[in-house]
Amino acid sequence: MPTAAKRPTRTTLDARALTAARIPLSAPLCLRADAWGSEVELPASAPAAADPYEGVALVTVHGPLAGEPDLLCGWFDGYDGPEGIAARFARAHADPAVKAVLLHFDTPGGTSAGMFSCIRRMQGAASKSGKPTLGYVKQACSAGYALATVCDGGLYGDVDCEAGSIGSYITHAEESAALAKEGVAITLICDPPGKVAGNPYEPLSDTGRARNERDVKACTAQFFALVTAARPDLDEKALRKLDGDVLAGQAAVDAGLITALADPLDVVALALAMAAQPKPKEAP
Questions:
Q1: Where are the alpha helices (DSSP H) in the chain?
Q2: How confident is the model over 140-152, as pLDDT tens digits?
Q3: pLDDT-derived band of residue 82, with 50, 70 and 90 as boundaries?
Q4: What is the pTM assigned to this prediction?
Q5: CB 42 within 8 A of CB 9
Q6: Which residues are catalytic?
Q7: 170: Cβ contacts below 8 Å, ≥ 6 apart
Protein backbone atom coordinates (compact mmCIF):
# COMPACT_ATOMS: atom_id res chain seq x y z
CA MET A 1 0.00 0.00 0.00
CA PRO A 2 1.54 3.34 -0.99
CA THR A 3 2.29 5.70 1.82
CA ALA A 4 0.56 9.06 1.90
CA ALA A 5 2.61 11.99 0.70
CA LYS A 6 3.89 14.25 3.44
CA ARG A 7 2.15 17.59 3.68
CA PRO A 8 4.31 20.69 3.40
CA THR A 9 5.13 22.32 6.72
CA ARG A 10 3.69 25.76 7.43
CA THR A 11 6.24 28.25 8.69
CA THR A 12 5.59 31.73 10.06
CA LEU A 13 7.98 34.43 8.95
CA ASP A 14 9.26 36.36 11.94
CA ALA A 15 12.57 37.59 13.36
CA ARG A 16 13.34 34.23 14.97
CA ALA A 17 12.74 32.33 11.74
CA LEU A 18 14.96 34.72 9.81
CA THR A 19 17.70 34.44 12.43
CA ALA A 20 17.51 30.65 12.31
CA ALA A 21 17.98 30.86 8.57
CA ARG A 22 21.08 33.00 9.04
CA ILE A 23 19.43 36.14 7.64
CA PRO A 24 20.78 39.01 9.79
CA LEU A 25 18.18 41.68 10.40
CA SER A 26 20.68 44.36 9.40
CA ALA A 27 21.42 42.79 5.99
CA PRO A 28 20.30 44.27 2.65
CA LEU A 29 16.88 42.77 2.04
CA CYS A 30 14.80 42.28 -1.07
CA LEU A 31 11.91 40.90 0.94
CA ARG A 32 8.29 41.83 0.46
CA ALA A 33 7.80 44.28 3.33
CA ASP A 34 4.42 43.01 4.49
CA ALA A 35 5.68 39.40 4.58
CA TRP A 36 6.51 39.85 8.27
CA GLY A 37 4.12 37.67 10.28
CA SER A 38 2.63 36.06 7.16
CA GLU A 39 2.66 32.36 6.44
CA VAL A 40 3.98 30.44 3.45
CA GLU A 41 3.92 26.77 2.53
CA LEU A 42 7.39 25.23 2.72
CA PRO A 43 8.29 21.73 1.51
CA ALA A 44 9.53 19.35 4.18
CA SER A 45 12.73 18.57 2.29
CA ALA A 46 14.94 19.73 -0.55
CA PRO A 47 13.31 19.65 -3.99
CA ALA A 48 14.28 16.73 -6.19
CA ALA A 49 15.82 17.08 -9.61
CA ALA A 50 13.38 18.36 -12.21
CA ASP A 51 11.17 15.63 -13.68
CA PRO A 52 10.22 16.62 -17.25
CA TYR A 53 6.50 16.60 -17.98
CA GLU A 54 6.15 15.90 -21.68
CA GLY A 55 9.53 17.55 -22.13
CA VAL A 56 8.93 20.56 -19.87
CA ALA A 57 11.00 20.60 -16.66
CA LEU A 58 9.45 22.21 -13.59
CA VAL A 59 11.98 24.09 -11.44
CA THR A 60 10.61 25.45 -8.17
CA VAL A 61 11.51 28.65 -6.35
CA HIS A 62 9.59 28.29 -3.10
CA GLY A 63 9.77 29.92 0.31
CA PRO A 64 11.97 32.77 1.60
CA LEU A 65 15.25 33.21 -0.28
CA ALA A 66 18.59 33.45 1.51
CA GLY A 67 22.26 33.26 0.59
CA GLU A 68 23.74 30.12 2.11
CA PRO A 69 26.89 27.96 1.88
CA ASP A 70 25.19 24.70 0.87
CA LEU A 71 26.47 24.18 -2.67
CA LEU A 72 24.88 20.73 -3.07
CA CYS A 73 21.17 21.38 -2.71
CA GLY A 74 20.89 25.07 -1.89
CA TRP A 75 18.24 24.26 0.69
CA PHE A 76 18.30 24.32 4.50
CA ASP A 77 15.72 24.83 7.22
CA GLY A 78 13.05 25.38 4.57
CA TYR A 79 14.84 28.30 2.92
CA ASP A 80 15.80 28.24 -0.75
CA GLY A 81 19.06 29.80 -1.90
CA PRO A 82 20.84 31.04 -5.02
CA GLU A 83 23.27 28.14 -5.34
CA GLY A 84 20.53 25.52 -5.29
CA ILE A 85 18.23 27.46 -7.61
CA ALA A 86 20.96 28.06 -10.18
CA ALA A 87 22.07 24.41 -10.01
CA ARG A 88 18.54 23.03 -10.48
CA PHE A 89 17.91 25.44 -13.33
CA ALA A 90 21.19 24.60 -15.08
CA ARG A 91 20.57 20.84 -14.74
CA ALA A 92 17.14 21.22 -16.30
CA HIS A 93 18.47 23.20 -19.26
CA ALA A 94 21.32 20.75 -19.80
CA ASP A 95 19.05 17.67 -19.73
CA PRO A 96 18.63 16.37 -23.30
CA ALA A 97 15.10 15.14 -22.42
CA VAL A 98 14.04 18.70 -21.60
CA LYS A 99 12.62 20.88 -24.37
CA ALA A 100 11.65 23.86 -22.21
CA VAL A 101 11.87 24.94 -18.56
CA LEU A 102 9.01 26.20 -16.41
CA LEU A 103 9.96 28.08 -13.23
CA HIS A 104 7.28 27.93 -10.54
CA PHE A 105 7.42 30.81 -8.06
CA ASP A 106 5.93 30.87 -4.58
CA THR A 107 8.20 33.21 -2.64
CA PRO A 108 7.91 36.56 -0.83
CA GLY A 109 11.59 37.28 -1.59
CA GLY A 110 14.63 37.37 0.66
CA THR A 111 18.16 38.67 0.89
CA SER A 112 19.94 40.09 -2.12
CA ALA A 113 23.13 38.16 -1.25
CA GLY A 114 24.05 35.93 -4.17
CA MET A 115 20.86 36.61 -6.12
CA PHE A 116 22.32 38.77 -8.88
CA SER A 117 25.13 36.29 -9.59
CA CYS A 118 22.51 33.51 -9.50
CA ILE A 119 20.51 35.32 -12.17
CA ARG A 120 23.60 35.73 -14.36
CA ARG A 121 24.29 31.99 -14.08
CA MET A 122 20.69 31.18 -14.97
CA GLN A 123 20.81 33.51 -17.96
CA GLY A 124 24.02 31.82 -19.09
CA ALA A 125 22.51 28.32 -18.77
CA ALA A 126 19.41 29.33 -20.75
CA SER A 127 21.48 31.04 -23.44
CA LYS A 128 23.73 28.00 -23.81
CA SER A 129 20.85 25.55 -24.21
CA GLY A 130 18.71 27.79 -26.40
CA LYS A 131 15.59 26.36 -24.74
CA PRO A 132 12.74 28.68 -23.71
CA THR A 133 12.15 29.51 -20.05
CA LEU A 134 8.65 30.38 -18.88
CA GLY A 135 7.45 31.31 -15.41
CA TYR A 136 4.31 30.50 -13.46
CA VAL A 137 3.58 32.67 -10.43
CA LYS A 138 1.74 31.93 -7.23
CA GLN A 139 3.82 34.61 -5.53
CA ALA A 140 6.93 36.28 -6.96
CA CYS A 141 7.92 39.27 -4.87
CA SER A 142 11.15 41.19 -4.32
CA ALA A 143 14.13 38.88 -4.91
CA GLY A 144 11.67 36.30 -6.25
CA TYR A 145 10.55 38.75 -8.92
CA ALA A 146 14.17 39.51 -9.74
CA LEU A 147 14.70 35.80 -10.44
CA ALA A 148 11.60 35.80 -12.63
CA THR A 149 13.34 38.16 -15.07
CA VAL A 150 15.07 35.10 -16.59
CA CYS A 151 11.72 33.94 -18.01
CA ASP A 152 12.19 34.95 -21.65
CA GLY A 153 9.05 33.06 -22.70
CA GLY A 154 6.74 35.06 -20.46
CA LEU A 155 5.48 35.14 -16.88
CA TYR A 156 2.02 33.74 -16.12
CA GLY A 157 -0.21 33.22 -13.12
CA ASP A 158 -3.75 32.59 -11.92
CA VAL A 159 -6.29 35.10 -10.66
CA ASP A 160 -4.84 34.92 -7.14
CA CYS A 161 -1.17 35.30 -8.07
CA GLU A 162 0.93 38.10 -6.57
CA ALA A 163 3.90 39.87 -8.13
CA GLY A 164 5.99 42.96 -7.51
CA SER A 165 7.67 44.56 -4.50
CA ILE A 166 10.42 45.75 -6.82
CA GLY A 167 13.00 47.50 -4.66
CA SER A 168 15.19 46.89 -1.64
CA TYR A 169 15.66 48.01 1.94
CA ILE A 170 17.85 47.63 5.01
CA THR A 171 16.67 47.45 8.61
CA HIS A 172 18.50 49.02 11.53
CA ALA A 173 17.53 47.72 14.96
CA GLU A 174 18.64 50.13 17.68
CA GLU A 175 18.86 48.29 21.01
CA SER A 176 20.42 50.86 23.34
CA ALA A 177 17.20 51.63 25.26
CA ALA A 178 16.43 47.95 25.77
CA LEU A 179 20.00 47.27 26.93
CA ALA A 180 19.93 50.22 29.32
CA LYS A 181 16.69 48.89 30.81
CA GLU A 182 18.49 45.60 31.46
CA GLY A 183 21.44 47.41 33.00
CA VAL A 184 23.78 46.56 30.15
CA ALA A 185 26.20 49.15 28.74
CA ILE A 186 28.22 48.32 25.63
CA THR A 187 31.33 50.27 24.72
CA LEU A 188 32.69 50.04 21.18
CA ILE A 189 36.36 50.90 20.74
CA CYS A 190 37.33 51.16 17.11
CA ASP A 191 39.66 52.74 14.58
CA PRO A 192 38.63 54.31 12.25
CA PRO A 193 35.34 55.61 13.69
CA GLY A 194 33.32 54.42 10.72
CA LYS A 195 34.22 50.81 11.49
CA VAL A 196 31.17 50.49 13.74
CA ALA A 197 28.81 52.80 11.80
CA GLY A 198 25.33 51.30 11.83
CA ASN A 199 25.87 49.12 14.92
CA PRO A 200 22.71 48.22 16.87
CA TYR A 201 23.96 49.47 20.26
CA GLU A 202 23.52 53.17 19.57
CA PRO A 203 21.29 55.41 17.44
CA LEU A 204 21.97 55.26 13.71
CA SER A 205 24.71 57.76 12.88
CA ASP A 206 24.80 59.98 9.79
CA THR A 207 27.61 57.81 8.45
CA GLY A 208 25.65 54.61 9.04
CA ARG A 209 22.53 56.03 7.40
CA ALA A 210 24.52 57.27 4.40
CA ARG A 211 26.12 53.86 3.91
CA ASN A 212 22.79 52.05 4.19
CA GLU A 213 21.20 54.43 1.70
CA ARG A 214 24.15 53.90 -0.68
CA ASP A 215 23.77 50.13 -0.49
CA VAL A 216 19.99 50.22 -0.92
CA LYS A 217 20.22 52.47 -3.97
CA ALA A 218 22.90 50.26 -5.55
CA CYS A 219 20.81 47.14 -4.98
CA THR A 220 17.68 48.79 -6.35
CA ALA A 221 19.55 50.03 -9.44
CA GLN A 222 20.59 46.44 -10.26
CA PHE A 223 17.04 45.25 -9.65
CA PHE A 224 15.53 47.93 -11.89
CA ALA A 225 18.04 47.14 -14.65
CA LEU A 226 17.02 43.47 -14.62
CA VAL A 227 13.31 44.27 -14.78
CA THR A 228 13.53 46.92 -17.50
CA ALA A 229 15.66 44.60 -19.66
CA ALA A 230 13.24 41.67 -19.24
CA ARG A 231 10.01 43.67 -19.48
CA PRO A 232 10.56 46.72 -21.73
CA ASP A 233 7.12 48.18 -20.90
CA LEU A 234 8.31 48.62 -17.32
CA ASP A 235 10.79 51.47 -17.59
CA GLU A 236 12.22 53.19 -14.52
CA LYS A 237 9.42 55.75 -14.52
CA ALA A 238 6.84 52.95 -14.36
CA LEU A 239 8.76 51.18 -11.60
CA ARG A 240 8.96 54.38 -9.57
CA LYS A 241 5.22 54.81 -10.01
CA LEU A 242 4.62 51.27 -8.72
CA ASP A 243 6.55 52.35 -5.61
CA GLY A 244 7.33 48.80 -4.51
CA ASP A 245 3.67 47.75 -4.59
CA VAL A 246 2.51 44.12 -4.83
CA LEU A 247 -0.32 43.52 -7.30
CA ALA A 248 -2.56 40.49 -7.71
CA GLY A 249 -4.13 38.75 -10.69
CA GLN A 250 -5.39 40.99 -13.48
CA ALA A 251 -3.97 44.10 -11.80
CA ALA A 252 -0.49 42.54 -12.13
CA VAL A 253 -1.17 41.92 -15.83
CA ASP A 254 -2.44 45.47 -16.38
CA ALA A 255 0.68 46.90 -14.73
CA GLY A 256 2.98 44.77 -16.91
CA LEU A 257 4.32 42.72 -14.00
CA ILE A 258 3.19 39.45 -15.58
CA THR A 259 2.30 38.54 -19.16
CA ALA A 260 -1.17 37.02 -18.73
CA LEU A 261 -3.43 34.91 -16.55
CA ALA A 262 -3.39 31.27 -17.60
CA ASP A 263 -3.90 27.69 -16.49
CA PRO A 264 -0.62 25.87 -15.69
CA LEU A 265 -1.27 23.16 -18.31
CA ASP A 266 -1.85 25.85 -20.94
CA VAL A 267 1.55 27.32 -20.03
CA VAL A 268 3.12 23.86 -20.44
CA ALA A 269 1.53 23.62 -23.90
CA LEU A 270 2.82 27.09 -24.75
CA ALA A 271 6.32 26.10 -23.62
CA LEU A 272 6.25 23.06 -25.92
CA ALA A 273 5.00 25.19 -28.80
CA MET A 274 7.84 27.66 -28.26
CA ALA A 275 10.35 24.82 -28.10
CA ALA A 276 9.05 23.46 -31.43
CA GLN A 277 9.59 26.75 -33.24
CA PRO A 278 12.64 26.72 -35.54
CA LYS A 279 15.63 28.58 -34.16
CA PRO A 280 16.73 31.64 -36.15
CA LYS A 281 19.92 31.03 -38.10
CA GLU A 282 22.97 32.95 -36.98
CA ALA A 283 24.52 35.35 -39.48
CA PRO A 284 27.77 34.06 -40.99
A1: 15-20, 82-94, 115-129, 143-147, 176-181, 206-230, 236-242, 249-254, 264-276
A2: 999 999 999 999 9
A3: confident
A4: 0.78
A5: yes
A6: 142
A7: 26, 27, 28, 29, 212, 215, 216
